[in-house]
Design a protein that fits this description.
It is elongated and about 55 Å long. It has 250 residues and is an alpha+beta fold. It has 3 helices and 10 strands, in the order αααββββββββββ. A 10-stranded antiparallel β-sheet has the order 1-2-3-4-5-6-7-8-9-10, covered by helices on one side. It has one domain.
């Protein structure tokens, strides 16, 4: 009888210990690594004029500024008033497309003589794109200050923040020199610092930016990467990540 009771007690203890142990059905996700090359290409994707990136928003802001004053520098809109503009953009590319809608608010600021001196630009865009290397969908928020409005000044100077949220699906390593393979979910915050924009050539010609990229691949664990950007003009820029430099196209 004592032996039976001991066995029952032992069985009860085994059940109790087993019942108290947490379920271990879900294995922890392995920590991911994103190469510098992949990160640089994601930055390039979120900066490009063909993906409604930061360079496209610089063009939009410059276009708004250029239409806000005449050749003598006189304001064509009311100074200090916020204007609403919606851009709908659909374009076929040689290897894809880009389409987006951008709700823009812009305000022209003037001096005491009613002469424009600065413009505030806020954009809220969403859309999709496909290039020969990747495809994706996004939302983008822009908050730029443009100075250099006076006609005598050859360049606008842009300072502010551009944020790209979305997914980018790579078409495979080696396709069009791509480093992207898989589906990347990312948030990229770019802080523009004295980025110059030529009024005649209508393109970015210089300046710098810093960025913070948070990205995961195929729903894995997100990683955060920081770096810097230098604008070289002629649609070119360099990205520096962990001391490595990469050439990108805008």
């Amino acid at each position: 009888m004592k032996k039976i009771m001991s066995l029952l007690t032992l069985a009860s203890l085994v059940w109790l210990v087993t019942a108290c142990q947490p379920a271990n059905d879900e294995q922890p996700q392995p920590e991911q690594t994103i190469s510098e090359e992949e990160a640089a290409e994601l930055v390039e994707t979120a900066m490009g004029s063909n993906t409604e990136g930061m360079s496209a928003e610089a063009e939009n802001a410059a276009a708004m500024a250029a239409g806000s004053y005449d050749s003598n520098g006189n304001a064509l809109v009311d100074c200090g008033e916020t204007n609403d503009t919606t851009l709908s953009y659909n374009r076929n590319l040689p290897n894809g497309y880009v389409n987006y809608t951008n709700d823009i608010q812009w305000t022209l600021e003037c001096n005491q003589l009613n002469v424009p001196v600065q413009m505030q630009y806020v954009g809220d865009a969403s859309g999709g794109f496909e290039t020969y290397r990747s495809m994706g969908s996004f939302t983008a928020l822009t908050a730029f200050d443009l100075s250099g409005i006076a006609p005598a000044q050859p360049e606008y100077v842009i300072n502010g923040l551009y944020t790209f949220d979305g997914t980018v699906q790579g078409k495979g390593v080696g396709i069009g020199s791509s480093q992207l393979e898989g589906t990347y979910t990312l948030t990229l915050e770019i802080t523009a610092e004295n980025v110059t924009f030529d009024k005649d050539a209508f393109e970015i010609t210089g300046g710098t930016a810093t960025f913070v990229l948070t990205v995961s691949v195929d729903d894995g664990v997100p990683v955060t990467i920081e770096g810097s950007i230098e604008f070289l003009g002629n649609g070119d820029a360099t990205v520096v990540i962990n001391g490595e430099t990469f050439d990108i196209d805008l």
